[in-house]
Amino acid sequence: MNLNDARKIIMPAHSASEDSTLHALPKRVFPRTPDLSGSNVEAKREEIRRYFHATLDRYEQLFETLQGEEAYFKKPISLRHPLIFYLGHTSTFFTNKLMLAGLIKERINPKMESMFAVGVDEMSWDDLNTTHYDWPSVDEVRAYRLKIRNTVDRIISEVPLSLPIGWDSPWWTIIMGIEHERIHLETSSVLIRQHTLEHVSAHPAWRPCGKSGQAPQNQLIHVAEGTVYLGKNKTDRTYGWDNEYGSHVAEVAAFQASKYLVSNQEFLAFIDANGYGTESFWEEEGRAWRCHTRAEYPTFWIRQGAEWRLRLMTEEIPMPWDWPAEVNYHEAKAFCNWKAATSGQSFRLPTEDEWYRLYDVAGLSDVPHTEQAAGNIHFDYFASSCPVNEFPQGEFYDVVGNVWQWTETPIYPFEGFDIHTHYDDFTTPTFDGRHNLIKGGSWISCGNESLKSARYAFRRHFFQHAGFRYVVGDTAVVQHDSHYETDKLLSEYAEFHYGDRYFDVPNFPKSLAELAIAAMGGKPCRKALDLGCASGRATFELARRFDEVTGIDFSARFIGQGVQLAGTGVLRYTLTDEGDLVVYRERTLTGLGLDAVRHKVAFYQGDACNLKPLFTGYDLILAANLIDRLYDPAKLLTSIHERLNLGGILLLASPYTWLEEHTKREAWIGGFKRDGESFGTLDGLNEVLGDRFKLIQGPKEVPFVIRETRRKFQHTLSEVTIWERVA
Amino acid sequence: MNLNDARKIIMPAHSASEDSTLHALPKRVFPRTPDLSGSNVEAKREEIRRYFHATLDRYEQLFETLQGEEAYFKKPISLRHPLIFYLGHTSTFFTNKLMLAGLIKERINPKMESMFAVGVDEMSWDDLNTTHYDWPSVDEVRAYRLKIRNTVDRIISEVPLSLPIGWDSPWWTIIMGIEHERIHLETSSVLIRQHTLEHVSAHPAWRPCGKSGQAPQNQLIHVAEGTVYLGKNKTDRTYGWDNEYGSHVAEVAAFQASKYLVSNQEFLAFIDANGYGTESFWEEEGRAWRCHTRAEYPTFWIRQGAEWRLRLMTEEIPMPWDWPAEVNYHEAKAFCNWKAATSGQSFRLPTEDEWYRLYDVAGLSDVPHTEQAAGNIHFDYFASSCPVNEFPQGEFYDVVGNVWQWTETPIYPFEGFDIHTHYDDFTTPTFDGRHNLIKGGSWISCGNESLKSARYAFRRHFFQHAGFRYVVGDTAVVQHDSHYETDKLLSEYAEFHYGDRYFDVPNFPKSLAELAIAAMGGKPCRKALDLGCASGRATFELARRFDEVTGIDFSARFIGQGVQLAGTGVLRYTLTDEGDLVVYRERTLTGLGLDAVRHKVAFYQGDACNLKPLFTGYDLILAANLIDRLYDPAKLLTSIHERLNLGGILLLASPYTWLEEHTKREAWIGGFKRDGESFGTLDGLNEVLGDRFKLIQGPKEVPFVIRETRRKFQHTLSEVTIWERVA
């Protein structure tokens, strides 16, 4: 590798306002994401200003590769806006976020800002909507950009700054805008690479690597088992997106990983082996993608007679066989499956955890502020990929840099994940199991993108400057739950059982469990049954005292929440705020002080009116808000003594909300006139529990609140009676 | 009339436990309903005991008219239980009510009590249910009756008694049981009268009047206008049923009333004039009844060749032409319509108020305790009707006694109506406009039935020992509202607006009105608009300060509640307690301190998104929980300044519960992402109200609670913003 060559290519643009006397940083490297701590406030202000201008300059320079106005208005690919949108979009993003932060009071150009607000970029997951756009001219957008640039520049001069800059600082939002523009620097470069050649031209600031040759023979390198620590906390010194926060610790079993990224040369063998045409190599989703697109080779490859060429951002070149193959997840995965099928070894992509293990064993660290990176990243060398054997990192090459690397891991929130209020949908819509993480960054990844902590994820069929490295590992890939419960009822119950207190009403299942435990007195507390456990809070709470607690509910979806908490310790859900607006909640057993009892609980799906015989021998049975939801409450109550030890306790709680939709009128045990007189449910309980039970406490009303929206709640009183089995 | 004869017929039975030395009351008259006040507790205890035994004796004596066992088990009419039921029923009633009162702890015979609890008697409104009954034998029921009698007797001996006896006294419930048995004494006598003759026989204790002759010529007597005072309060000295309580004052215009009850003779002219066959004489409901039953003459009349005979309780006699005609309301009404048609005068039945006016002008008072009554009532003379010219009362005859008299008035609750918790369905199911009051009592009416304050009502097609007196009056008959709102939503809103406070949350519409009035400061307060007024509470509350308040709601059913309150001052509704069980509520403007402002309010049905132009010139517009229920909230809000005076105040309150079922998503004014950012409803309000309004107070959350059942509530926060129209 010729570093001098590389250096010549890098020509960071200098901003108009740049005052060279203020700059302590060398200009050789494209400015890194700022350190948020420090003591020199004015120096920090200028560092951020320089970061801001350098970012906008570089972004605008990207558009200089476009040839003529038409290049801005013609869509490179059908599912994306034309590039004019992306030119405006990053500025509008500033306006929106600065308004949220209270840094500006009024929109700068409401019409443009409405047009440029919501795009369909490679970070996005929606299909392009069909709104008709009447785009402004390139000059108009450039004038708009300048206006925003001056506004932000003024804000950077005027807004009080204190260090370190935290989530709540208005400066966080300024950096958010800059980092957002850096993301689009990369994604717009991909769009330009997808534009037809006639619309683009080479540019001295975007010169690709000139080096290529025979690809090295790839090989597997053993990686010893080890622990990886992922995540970020809010005192970290660099800006991060929401998905980076929280923590995740994993024991990574030993595995083997390819020394190099898979090169074009190595990938060609898969094509030649009819890999694209062999269904069995493709996962189901990949098969559908291939069938839909009829792909026969990677998207940036061009077949010219017997020759292969490669499309770069602004030009086509003869296939550089030693550069990394750029593919989507499906293609990478099919390649691995082909290798597994032909070798008998368990080839696959690395997990995110394994990538971090590689990072650790390669001895890497974040891109230094004043020196060049250890890989082809952050524009430090080329405006393109380069050979896969150019940047050794420990025993490996390109653990970071060159191209992003697909993983097996759909993005998921770490425990402690938190959403920044000024960008509450940066990540959450991608927690759907359909967006896989890419790691390591590409030649153009800069700012936050280049950090070890960065976590970007794309739909598996999307293209970026992304390739892959394969691993051989015998351990099954663990998929992390990324699900936010959005079903209205389940979310409401999650909050009801594990969430906040409203109207000062204490947690209901917890209160009942406490009443039940108190009622046990000195009785044996071996086994308890939480019948109609719903989301399972009382099941866990009873396990504080009982050796073993069974939670049973008719709804498998409800007990799913208990099962998930017992298994993963975490439960996530959205809550309706107002209209379509939602807020995100994460609850953990640790946070609830229940982590120590999770091994004592077991959840089962079951019908309280037709319970399996094995559910017996309990010292306590708790049935909360259950009896008025059963189709035959008397059937349960007349036989419940068979499941309860003599002397055992039965706690019933119910608002007695009898409804025909749940319980046919003839099966109600109270709440009607009988023999001419009012016959309440408590009368019915006395009758149906008969001589086998003695009422030892209650009736007493215990309130509960179910949150429906930010302002609307169900507020109910449940009548609690505690009975002792006496016969 | 031969009073000696009459006296001989009356032979009150003496109870087994009767101790003649304790009885100060003469035995000549059947015991009257006891005076609930007094100072001699032991004497009162014995008076009640005597009242109890005398009532049961007389009731059992009634069954002595039955011939053989079959008479007990064969239904006299298809829609009634056989008489065995009624023999058991009055005892079971004691058990039920004594249990409610806590005077007994356990049922005496659960099986019989289940059978005998709910009957279909003439007080009832339901069709006979089809349950199969396996009746016990007469001896078994007699033994059961004895058991109850002894139990009650013991209770009378043992339960502490303090005077006066009020609603909450357990003694009230004892007297309730006795009065209930007295009602059945009368209704069972009607059933026996409906039994075929073979099942009954004459009995010396039930000897009918032996006197009859030519009927007197009836005539109209002028009654001067006057005020009548109806109702009873809880400090009254006699037992009353729920419907008697509260008060009602009426100015009765002058009218003419027939001197005598309509005799069989007088009624015959109607039959002979083909009255039964002439459709135009019959009201719609009466026409349906006649068509269904094919009646051609009164039910107790028998046509034998050219002769007419009359069925009495135990025998048939040649038609006593001077006795009152016994008919149902429909027949009485048709008779009046015939008389009106043939005379051109406005003949009709009296209203309840007019009957009370007759009572007053006749100078009547309640049956004396130790002397005979002034009419054929309370068994004081005969076990049947007697000639209509036997008992003069002032200028009239038979204002009380002989037979009940149908009125034009469906029973309705007086203001202040209250329900006794031990018999909560005595009257309420008859507040349906289909049960007309009968007044005056018959020869067998005794105890409470004989009191001036008594109010009994039957379906208009039912038969009792009932006839009628006609009046000629030019004033229209006022029908009183007897409606208890039972529609779930309307009832809930009635309670929400006018009812109790739950969870200590102050009344919501009242709070908003107070906020609005406070916000007015020194501004003119002429006209206010309560838009989306629902049940109208805020409309009334604003009228405390404004000269004129308009309440508008899309739902005519909701504004009906405001209209009713403004018109009648009272609103009644049921609330679901638990299952089918309900409680009754009555709210009055007086009770709410709003009586003085009722003339300032006006309610209109209207669409807030399409209001008529006349609704303008307001100093205040209040829109509570409205905007998120409109199909086009922006349409209202962008034009609302046209209805508000400059400087006027707009108070908006809403929980912003946007739902597609009310407002299509595209019409929401907030609660969604716009241009990529959260756009709340308050943002939308700011935008849509624009420069014409200035936010002068809020946002502030004001809570409200809607009661769904005794234990289940909606508890919601409504965001209040107060805006001043500035342009």
From TrEMBL, chains A, B:
GO terms for molecular function: formylglycine-generating oxidase activity. This is 5-histidylcysteine sulfoxide synthase/putative 4-mercaptohistidine N1-methyltranferase. It holds the Pfam family FGE-sulfatase. It comes from Nitrosovibrio tenuis. Residues 52-187 form the DinB-like domain. InterPro entries: CTDL_fold, DinB-like, OvoA_Cterm, OvoA_Nterm, SAM-dependent_MTases_sf, Sulfatase_Mod_Factor_Kinase, SUMF_dom, SUMF_sf. Keywords: Iron, Oxidoreductase. It comes from the Bacteria. Residues 218-471 form the Sulfatase-modifying factor enzyme-like domain. Pathway: Amino-acid biosynthesis; ergothioneine biosynthesis.
